[in-house]
């Protein structure tokens, strides 16, 4: 899981964070003031300091927070001045927004706060719809507003150009003060409590958060406009209340609960995407009428509460349809406060020892958990002061905390406060007795100011004032350690000032006394039982490797005595299901037998038999294990299915489909044994990914790129590697990176195998969305309804409308996936939506748009539901930036590059210092970096070298034939791209002096992905490849005839498919053996030379859209 942080505040106001990959509590030393409480999410942490102001700490990232400001310069043509800023009275402003309705001169753009800075000056955008404009960036039209074009025509009477400037958020990893100002000015009273959440309400805008705050007078305020490009938000809005609130809690979704002064609880209702503040409150009684509630914490589907007697309560029946729940359940334990984090994990602070506890056993099926366990982790100060001591890292014990060392009975024992209050620091200070006669030099002292009525003793500290600022003035101190009266200390007359040590207030063996904890940004796996925040997987433990080594040695020692015995035949029998090849196609129960034996050369071999009945006659199918080229898992929502391919069945695109729960692993091991393949893939391996996310590798033979007799693609053997990814990229130095469907980056560990024969295997998760469509048709009586015409699509369907998909019958892609969220409306669909998520069109299927017109008789909206896959594989997560594409520099087989350049695109489209979001990037030989922007335009990065690996600027490359490009791959000397219509293009004219090239040449169509290797070899994922029964989508193809004098190649050779989505050959740098070509003149006496049998080329079609599988 990704590294995340648990935040906590001790009773002295010091803020600490504990990383799930760390070993200790780290103190935030940049905090100037002491803090009362914090609320954290994954990207930031909010806090209330003891000055009652709110502060924000945004975590730093390799991708900065940047916001694009833009304005348009408009001009009109006239016979006298040509194009000028002299516009008609009815025209738009000279400087305006894109609509022309708002006046936006360049000097009107100001920074939102001092936490922002400008990246540079204003510049003109010379990119228009993916095409470069003329110098100056002007686009022309006949009038305002109209359709703009980059070329000037005779009737172009107006023109405009876009000016862009970027600002960057600079206050990262530090506490930035948030102004306490509402819509009508400063807020009337300071804040007392704060809670952040709501990131699951909507994904638009990205990073959207809800921040709720409570003032000292019991009012509730909502911070509006918090999202990724505005982490501070816009302003405060007051929320009406049925009473005075003392504490509030906001969950990741639409759950918001608060505690009233009388001890009752209130629940916010009506929270939606368009109304994150909600609409009304509902009162819920306290769990204990005699002891009202003092604290509440909410998560996704849980609510926890603490009453005045420190009892902990769990609210049952909480869900999105019933935010109030149905009843309270008393839990074991007494806590000062509790907090709910990610995955509904619960944290708390005990009222007995002020230690942080977590709730063990919290799962989706048992949200209340099982038991409390203490988080026993040292502080950074403890490790520095005990550097020679042995410390148990990241461990949390279920046993009680260790007893403190014996103390002198003459020294009074400090009292531990039992409740968390706004004056907890004052309360702690009131319990400290000043040791008279100690030298002041032992510890620097701030001032503690008490009222005159309390100067005689410390028995009643409720009216004590704490000066939280460090004393800047050197005051005279008497021999008793009490500061004398001074008018510089306070405006009050005759006050007594007591000293407080600024050093470490805890003893050598004392654990911190915690006052507040926040786990809103801390992600822990639900399977964690012993609560170890930095636990290492058991697969990498030393004892595991030692046991494996001992078992291997014992097995070898015992098997050596039986080498002279004849090897016997091993037979595995069982039952499975087989998909019948002929009509009616259906699953048939069959018996199978896997016979394994030693081959003539001592290698393992075998045969798979399938026995079935047809017309009351017993028949069988068989496949030789050494002829199997791949075993592919197939998507099925109810069965564990897979396909068996041989070279012949690969040509026909007609595999043997089987359904079995466990036999796939057995067959995979048998296939690898028959070919003598063991251990991890080599550095030269070819990697590919299916549409399902399964990862396969193939060990290339030296003759794979031979000319004119290469190894046929259909004879290549592919084996599966554990894990689940959307794409994989590699190079010949063994560096392999992958990106999941949830944009998580993973790096290959060099592991391999399955079962007990594995190494460097870790847990891997992936999340993706399943989409269904709700369709409606308009009629003059009832308007839009779910009653369509007989020829219409299903009212609940997939994207094509051909398959019925309702919320009830739609299942996860396979049994390996599980739902992790409920169905929600997707507002991010291409074309835009209205406020309710609908898209409108004239009929099914046509182009959809997000606003209704008089000609729109049908509408649809997309529903999304997230599902999660948990598997294992040789992959380790690369935090913390989510990526959409990655590329690694090409290298030769014998080259050594230190360090290895790697380029990546974040899921926002950021890469390097680019002013436009990208979607594809590739780095080739000689540090050539090409990228594709989201608008389909191509860019080349200039001046990239080993001395300057980031380059200096981007060059805009015109697209081929007004096509919008989708993906790019750069080889040693070749550049290939794929456009949105599935056309493959080759860049001509690349030279060392002009690396941008001169023009594009069309190669073929029906291409989904392209990969160019370090030898300029070309491999693609092709669609619409003809098989024996139908067209195959997602087929691996190899370009034949690629040579230095013929970089475009000649024809295609078909490999495994369909169902493939990605391939990379960027690690295969094996040079083909040189073959001596026979003489072209036939010998008069000898036989004629053999003819070269090249496969058929891909059928040429008219820019057909690629069919997705």
Folded structure, characterized:
- The chain has 1109 residues and is mainly β.
- It has 6 domains: 268 residues, Methylamine Dehydrogenase, Chain H (7 Propeller); 104 residues, no CATH class; 77 residues, no CATH class; 98 residues, Pleckstrin-homology domain (PH domain)/Phosphotyrosine-binding domain (PTB) (PH-domain like, Roll), CATH 2.30.29; 102 residues, no CATH class; 179 residues, Methylamine Dehydrogenase, Chain H (7 Propeller), CATH 2.130.10.
- The strands form 19 sheets. Strands 7, 8, 9, 10, 11, 14 and 15 form a 7-stranded antiparallel beta sheet that branches. Strands 27-28-29-30-31-32-33 form a 7-stranded antiparallel beta sheet, with no helix packed on it. A 7-stranded antiparallel beta sheet has the order 41-40-39-38-44-43-42.
- The radius of gyration is 35 Å and the shape is globular.
- The C terminus is likely disordered.
CATH architecture of the largest domain: 7 Propeller
pLDDT < 50 runs, ≥5 residues: 385-501, 529-537, 1079-1109
> How many extended strands?
77
Radius of gyration: 35 Å
Q: Can you say what the CATH homologous superfamily of the largest domain is?
A: Regulator of chromosome condensation 1/beta-lactamase-inhibitor protein II
CATH class of the largest domain: Mainly Beta
InterPro entries: Beta-propeller_rpt_TECPR, Peroxin/Ferlin, TECPR1-like_DysF, Tectonin_beta-prop
GO molecular function, one term: lipid binding
Main location: membrane
GO cellular component, one term: lysosomal membrane
